[in-house]
Inverse folding.
């Protein structure tokens, strides 16, 4: 069985945030909602300072706390390891939001859909058709663009990245690109001490 | 190290501490009524104090239930929360509330009418108390599962819930049962006042321990403590939660007159402190940044 995962190459990421825009477009995300963010981080001491860009995304945790605490069964894991939210079952309790150690859940407010992307109260045709996939009052998160994965494609952020800083594939296949990177460049998971077994790794 | 060099970030695309915003006033209100109502029922039932038990039950059903319904994004689907009792404390809590409401009401009816035969009567009373006990602690367990909000993830959180529930229960029983207990159980009032003083002391140390464990738990925990003690929430945490909720109410309990008016005042101070505690625990909850995978980036 496949175990879909992602590797972020911090050496390659230039912080252009094309991934963020591609994600918003692919998933018709309303104002203020992001499934992925590329964060900037300044470190070091003058004159030896650096800025590193750290992409973040739902880690599709193998031992997902958001799934454990979900009282309705709305959060579940697919056979390929992608953690999903069933919008017809979600009761909007936000337990998943407070349990996710990575702050990767967003609760959808009704007014996110009413104001529109331009804040005028009018929705563009793009928004109208895109917002049909959402139910206000429920929880959303990245699902590795499951609709694209089902069609044999990479997630939108991966396809768009101009520097190949996001590498997607089956972590159960030792010859997949992400598996090789994790092995060869000592891939590390975010907050491993939380015991969530993320399927997202960082190499630098 | 991290706490010194990283800031609280809002929606900016920067690495830093993020405030939790998902649980707010409606959840705090639900938690308040849950731990006050269940505590009142629990203490009152030792003295068959029907007024206390009834009020406790109503506080849980309407105060806690109402707060939760207001919080839910899809309240009409709330029944679905019954389905994951194996892993979710929210599910377990909902079962406890339902059992408590049903069997607590049955027990109260039975107390007034003698409706049930003895074994069934004991069963109804037992199930109601079991549900009540779960309500007194489960909120703490639900919060302590948030592993990246260090202020919440402490093992002390369920104990804090239990302590506050018992303290609220004793204080409210001292008010509601003041006259009735003086006649039916005259020995109860001094005992309850003594218990209240003990619980005030214990609660005070418990809250300080929670703050202490957060401060030394992680950078995010330190940020939360900073906000509570010196930052945006210090104007409420110190004077309301600690001084009014524990110091003033404890001192009055120990040294002031023991009449009903004083007990109402003490209960008012204690409950105000407790409500502020519930609100501030949510407001000061801070997520740790996702940096531990890259020790070389740490300053
Ligand atoms: S990153 Fe958060 S939302 Fe995603 S699977 Fe893990 S716990 Fe759930
Ligand atoms: S908000 Fe929805 S997905 Fe999240 S825990 Fe509650 S029911 Fe589950």
């Amino acid at each position: 069985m496949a175990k879909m995962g992602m590797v972020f190459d911090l050496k390659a990421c230039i912080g252009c945030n094309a991934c963020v825009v591609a994600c918003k477009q692919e998933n018709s995300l309303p104002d203020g909602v992001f499934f992925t963010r590329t964060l900037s981080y300044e470190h070091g001491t003058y004159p030896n300072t650096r800025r590193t860009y750290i992409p973040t995304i739902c880690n599709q945790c193998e031992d997902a706390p958001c799934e454990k605490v979900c009282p309705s069964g709305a959060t579940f894991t697919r056979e390929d390891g992608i953690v999903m939210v069933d919008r017809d079952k979600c009761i909007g309790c936000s337990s998943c939001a407070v349990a996710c150690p990575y702050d990767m859940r967003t609760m959808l407010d009704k007014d996110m859909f009413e104001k529109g992307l331009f804040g005028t109260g009018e929705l563009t045709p793009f928004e109208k058709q895109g917002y049909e996939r959402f139910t206000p009052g429920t929880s959303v998160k990245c699902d590795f663009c499951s609709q694209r994965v089902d069609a044999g494609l990479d997630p939108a952020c991966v396809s768009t990245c101009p520097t190949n800083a996001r590498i997607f594939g089956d972590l159960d296949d030792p010859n997949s690109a992400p598996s090789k990177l994790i092995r060869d460049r000592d891939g590390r998971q975010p907050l491993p001490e939380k015991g969530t077994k993320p399927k997202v790794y960082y190499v630098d | 190290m991290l706490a010194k060099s990283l800031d609280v970030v809002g929606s900016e695309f920067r690495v830093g501490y993020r405030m939790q915003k998902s649980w707010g006033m409606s959840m705090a209100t639900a938690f308040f009524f849950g731990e006050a109502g269940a505590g009142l029922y629990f203490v009152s039932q030792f003295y068959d104090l029907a007024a206390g038990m009834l009020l406790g039950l109503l506080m849980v059903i309407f105060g806690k239930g109402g707060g939760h319904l207001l919080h839910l994004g899809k309240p009409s689907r709330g029944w679905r929360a019954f389905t994951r009792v194996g892993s979710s404390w929210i599910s377990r809590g909902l079962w406890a509330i339902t059992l408590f409401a049903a069997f607590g009401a049955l027990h109260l009816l039975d107390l007034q009418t003698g409706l049930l035969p003895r074994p069934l009567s004991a069963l109804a009373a037992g199930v109601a108390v079991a549900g009540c006990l779960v309500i007194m602690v489960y909120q703490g367990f639900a919060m302590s599962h948030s592993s990246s909000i260090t202020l919440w993830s402490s093992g002390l959180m369920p104990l804090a819930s239990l302590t506050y529930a018992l303290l609220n229960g004793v204080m409210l029983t001292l008010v509601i049962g003041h006259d009735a207990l003086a006649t039916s159980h005259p020995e109860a009032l001094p005992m309850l006042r003594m218990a209240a003083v003990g619980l005030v002391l214990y609660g005070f140390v418990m809250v300080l321990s929670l703050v202490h464990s957060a401060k030394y738990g992680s950078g995010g925990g330190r940020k939360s403590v900073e906000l509570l003690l010196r930052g945006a929430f210090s104007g409420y945490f110190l004077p309301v939660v600690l001084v009014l909720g524990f110091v003033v109410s404890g001192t009055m309990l120990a040294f002031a007159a023991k009449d009903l008016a004083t007990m109402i005042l003490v209960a008012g101070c204690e409950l105000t402190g407790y409500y502020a505690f519930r609100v501030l625990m949510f407001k000061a909850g801070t997520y740790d940044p996702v940096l531990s995978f890259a020790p070389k980036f740490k300053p």
Q: What stands out?
A: The mean pLDDT of chain B is 93. The radius of gyration of chain B is 21 Å. Chain B touches chain A through 46 residues (CB under 8 Å). The first helix of chain B runs from residue 2 to 5.
